[in-house]
Amino acid sequence: MNLSRGSHYLAIPGPSVMPEAVLRAMHRPAPNIYTGELHDIVDTIIPDLKQVAKTDQNVALYICNGHGAWEAALSNVFRRGDKALGLVTGRFGEGWSATAERLGVEVARLDFGRRAAVDLDAVAAALDADRDHEIRAVMTVQVDTATSVKNDIAGLRAVLDRLGHPALLMVDCIASLAVDEFHMDAWGVDVMVTASQKGLMTPPGLGFVYFSQKADAARERSDLATAYWDWRPRVRAEAFYQYFNGTAPTHHLYGLRAALDLIREEGMEQIWARHAALARAIWAAVDAWGAAGPLELNVPEPGIRSHAVTTVRAGGGAGTRLRDWVSVNAGLTLGIGLGMASPEDPASDGVFRIGHMGYVNAQMVMGALGAIDTGLKALGIPHGSGALEEAATVLARA
């Protein structure tokens, strides 16, 4: 019997679940782009975006995805031939470094694998060896969406400050903004990139680059910023079209305004606490399943696990089998094992990801866990008992 009829739950790590308020706000005729309401909305969006990131610095809006936000950030701070230090904890840290290289930046990588966070001592050693301060930026992700590893951003700033190294600190918060705790100014982040489709609960299509005055000073020597990627007109717009280098993404702006209303209503501290509790419930369930079977959390150490996405190792081809079963039979879509290929598992069939970011609550997470538990039983994948009880206990105590 197929039991999937009803609302399908997209539990992947982005695009996240879109609130009805966001969808309703976008379902409208196109507005006048030359004057009126749309201009007023952008005037309110920019300060609210800054509040989400805990910053008084600049934020530029782009019509793009996260990869576009990467390129926008890179284009404004580097010259061809500049050097950067890329800190890799999964596919997306590697991807940002590779994008920089394609723009002509020389990137030295420190790769910490797919189950561990950035080692601050290793970073300190690399920066200390750079006696001539040729490294112009340290680039990393707060959360790598592929591995679900979370990095210590405040700790990286402390390393740079202790060594007196002038490199910019550049952070990808595409998976983590409005999910995991982040304080741009207090943590001394110079450039932060994010996108609309995860914690900001708006369909894919908007990228955001936050930058400090120090980063803007680097714009003076950059030779990579084209007319489209240049962030200065976007934050110092004399005419409305300059915010977007052309026609505004009108319906996305209406949706983003509704999403920011929801964020303001709940409050950032409560949002961080909600995501932390839901993540702990998922971890408890996976630990219970793994007590008598192959399932295990990709990140062994709780302190470096993302609150936005959980990567699970299921063994053999169990990840793909389970994803297929819950999609067809239970109306649940789980994330693929992105960037988790190995010689033993070249298609990442032994890995799946649970997205729990944005507009997600306790009943949604418990429903997803129940569907996974059912799939494990239906497919005969070995697993321990009591997973749902463990998750429920975590949430009951939150």
Task: Report what the structure shows.
The chain has a seven-stranded mixed sheet with strand order 2-8-7-6-5-3-4, with helices on both faces. A five-stranded mixed sheet has the order 1-11-12-10-9. Helix 4 links the parallel strand 3 (83-88) and strand 4 (106-111). The model has no long low-confidence stretch (mean pLDDT 97). 40% of the residues lie in helices and 15% in strands. The chain is built from 13 helices and twelve strands. By secondary structure, it is of the alpha/beta class. It folds into two domains: 9-16 and 268-396, Aspartate Aminotransferase, domain 1, CATH 3.90.1150; 31-265, Type I PLP-dependent aspartate aminotransferase-like (Major domain) (Aspartate Aminotransferase, domain 2), CATH 3.40.640. Helix 10 runs antiparallel to helix 13 (387-396) and helix 11 (318-330) crosses helix 12 (362-379).
Concise description?
The protein is of the alpha/beta class and 398 residues long. It folds into two domains: 137 residues, Aspartate Aminotransferase, domain 1 (Alpha-Beta Complex), CATH 3.90.1150; 235 residues, Type I PLP-dependent aspartate aminotransferase-like (Major domain) (Aspartate Aminotransferase, domain 2, 3-Layer(aba) Sandwich). It is built from 13 helices and twelve strands.
